[in-house]
Amino acid sequence: MHNKTPRILVIGSFMVDLMSKSPQFPSPGQTVMGGPFHMGAGGKGSNQAIAAAKLGAHVDIVVSLGDDQFGDMAYDSLIQAGIGTAYVKRVNDASTGIALIIVDDSSGENMIVVAPGSNDVLDMSDVEKARQTIREADCVVMQLEVPLETVEYAAKLAQEAKTRVILDPAPGRPLSDELLANVDVLTPNAD
Fold first, then answer.
1. How many CA atoms are closer than 13 Å to the CA of 57, on its beta-carbon side?
2. Helical H runs in 2-110?
């Protein structure tokens, strides 16, 4: 049996998660004391890349980070996870994406506000730079926390290269028939 290490290309988001627990969700205008506070790597793309790397895959990521402290932290977390960073774009005109997360300590429910920042400027030219890696990958994994036209372009390139496409269609939004025709595996969740 052939034991080839899977090669995965993730095209997507990186968010820095800023999370705190709270005894309850605050009402509008109310301040609630919470804690403890946690900051770490997040975003669907980053989470997918880190999980695949932990499982032993060779992983590269196409992602856009701000040229800021959070971008430095994000880049370092990708390196520490063993993820290829040749396609990491750093931008001056947008901050690294963040997710503000409040977790209700009693119910475990959460509320999340996302400021996508640099994720919104990941574009087709960034995907184009990874064209050869798309051809060589076993699969391309994406989600919808980056511009839809970027995802559509990447799915088209992957299908032309006969590379499997896995799409997490979140956050939910209408998808074109053309995009869906270029997706091999769709992984929806409750959102």
1. 20
2. 44-54, 69-80
In the Cβ-directed half-sphere of 169, how many Cα atoms lie within 13 Å? 16
Q: In terms of CATH, what superfamily is 7-26+34-140?
A: Ribokinase (3.40.1190.20)
Half-sphere exposure of 162 (CA within 13 A, CB side): 0
Structural domain boundaries of the chain?
7-26+34-140
Distance CA 21, CA 120 (A): 28
pLDDT digit string (tens) for 64-109?
999 999 999 999 999 999 999 999 999 999 999 999 999 999 899 9
Q: pTM of the entire structure?
A: 0.91
Q: How many residues in total does the chain contain?
A: 191
CA 50/CA 73 separation, integer angstroms:
14
**For 114-169, how does the pLDDT look when each residue is reduced to its tens digit (9 = 90+)?**
999 999 999 999 999 999 999 999 999 999 999 999 999 999 999 999 999 999 99
What is the Cα–Cα distance from 88 to 129, expressed in whole angstroms? 10
Q: Which two tokens stand for residue 71?
A: 């971008």
pLDDT in tens, 15-62: 999 999 999 898 999 999 998 999 999 999 999 999 999 999 999 999
Report which secondary-structure segment, H or E, holds 60. Answer: strand 58-66
